[in-house]
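note to self: dont lose this again. the chain is below, predicted strucutre after it. 465 aa total, dont forget to put it in the shared folder this time
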Amino acid sequence: RAAKFLHNNGLCNEGDRKDIRTLLLDVTSSMVAPSRGGVIPRRAHQYTRHFIKIRPNLKTFFDQISELYEVQIYTAGTRDYAFKVSDLLSRYMVGAKDEEEMMSLRENIKCLENKLASMEKDHDKKENNPEEPHKNVEGNLSTEQKSTDNEENSNAPPRKRVKFSDECLSSKGDTLRMQLRGKREILMEAEKLEASARILRQQLFGSRIISRTDVGDLGRDVKDLKRAFPCGGVMSAVVDDREDVWANAKENISGRAGEPPLNLLLVKPYHCKSFTDAGYADVNNVSGSDLSRSDVSLPEEDEQLLWTADILTRLHKSYYAYHKMESTKSVPDILGEMRRNVLRDRPTNILLSGIVPIHGKMKGRPQVLRYAEELGAKVFTECKPEVTHLVCNREGTLKFNWAMKKPKCVVVRTAWLMKCLWSLKRISEDSFMFHVPENPTTESENTDASSDDDFEAELEKEMFG
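---
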């Protein structure tokens, strides 16, 4: 189905794709949730078994972006791992079986063929060699030995000799033939879908893979745009769940020192709870940090790929709108503008509480502070009347108690800000708001919170200059 979609939209001919921008795509924890679940029996020296959970809405994502971008995989995994994942994604999109299912289906067919061949061979042998009378197999046993054997077997229950009639054998053979015919039809259809998946994989990804097999510094938590684009990659977009690996690159063409390039689209890390509960190990590098996970979990569907597809569509449209006006704007410039417009539709003055790290040395601005500023909000370091939002993770701090009493000040969890960042849209605060506690904590009861606030104020004043 996905291959037909691409063909109908003229994506089979690379020469017709004149307006394609490049999309560097991370797969681990961005598109799929992989885990290592042990080795395959009797093949431990060859294979390691991985379990892959595909992120919801993946087919819709590729249907929307495949005609706008040329996709290139950039992963910290090996080249074999990247190829297997791209193959699995293509199989999933066309509805094909995976390799293990195809192998199992072929083994079942082979087993049925062997059973049927054995049955037909026995039937032919019986027809060519009519059954002869049973021979005396007792040989030269003595009379005394025969009598002893008869006495020992006299108390044993009589044995029943089971014989299958020709009609019964014929019926069993017909059943096997029907099963074999059905399995072969399933295999034929599965092989057609498998061929479609191979075509789709070539069209979507081709040989465009950058892995740690190709680039040594990926093992040191570094991803660099110059590995794919020596001139800097200002006409490309990047989708990844980790921003630290991009921030670790030297001389990024956009963004501040120690911060990721502006053409990075950060996505929420994708995890599979079943893998975690089973104790399966992560594959490759750890996933990116999710600042919303410390919040109270809210039942929700994973919409990240729908958000990302929408962002990439808007980016493509904006890029060529500027191009038609003969204006030169790079992808980082356009994405920076899109981010700043998220919270600028109405005044958004943010105060942070309890979410700025107080230990360790940081490169650049603290994450949440940077996210708020990039989204167009004005960040305050003190409790002032102009504050419209308090972003925090817990109750009881001095800023929290102050904001809960202030009219027209919304107190929200960090997940609200993160969702705005992941979707590049203003998300309603309703699902993320704190409610007035029945027994609010007093200042004397929460000295730790007070010290945290003091530290944050000093740090934020230092960051703002």
